[in-house]
Amino acid sequence: MIDLKQIYDKDEYQSMRAFYYCKNIEDKPRVYELITDSYWAYCYCIEVKDRPEVRNNITSYNHKSLYYLWDIREC
């Protein structure tokens, strides 16, 4: 039986690795599509590039609020 916590951790780890790859090596569509965790999607939009397809993965209300405040500050 698979524990849901293991799946979540794997997704978060995958998102983290994809974020750092895009930030430090090369920003490829094939890689940024792997950023599905809310926190890492938020980091990607703030630190790499604000892409709508990644921004849609910001699902946590805390991260959405922080993103909204950042977006207002940038205007």
Describe the 3D structure:
The protein is an all-alpha fold and 75 residues long. It contains 5 helices and no strands. Helix 1 packs parallel to helix 3 (38-47) and helix 3 (38-47) packs parallel to helix 5. It has one domain. The protein has helices at residues 4-24, 29-32, 38-47, 52-55, 61-74.
**Strand portion, in percent?**
under 5%
Structural class: mainly alpha
Provide the succession of SSEs.
Answer: HHHHH
Low-confidence stretches: none
How would you describe the oligomerization state of the chains in this entry?
single chain
Annotation field: number of helices: 5
Biggest β-sheet strands, sense, barrel: none
Radius of gyration from CA coordinates: 13 Å
**Overall pLDDT:** 85
> Shape from CA axes?
globular
Short description:
The protein is an all-alpha fold and 75 residues long. It has helices at 4-24, 29-32, 38-47, 52-55, 61-74. The protein has one domain (4-74).
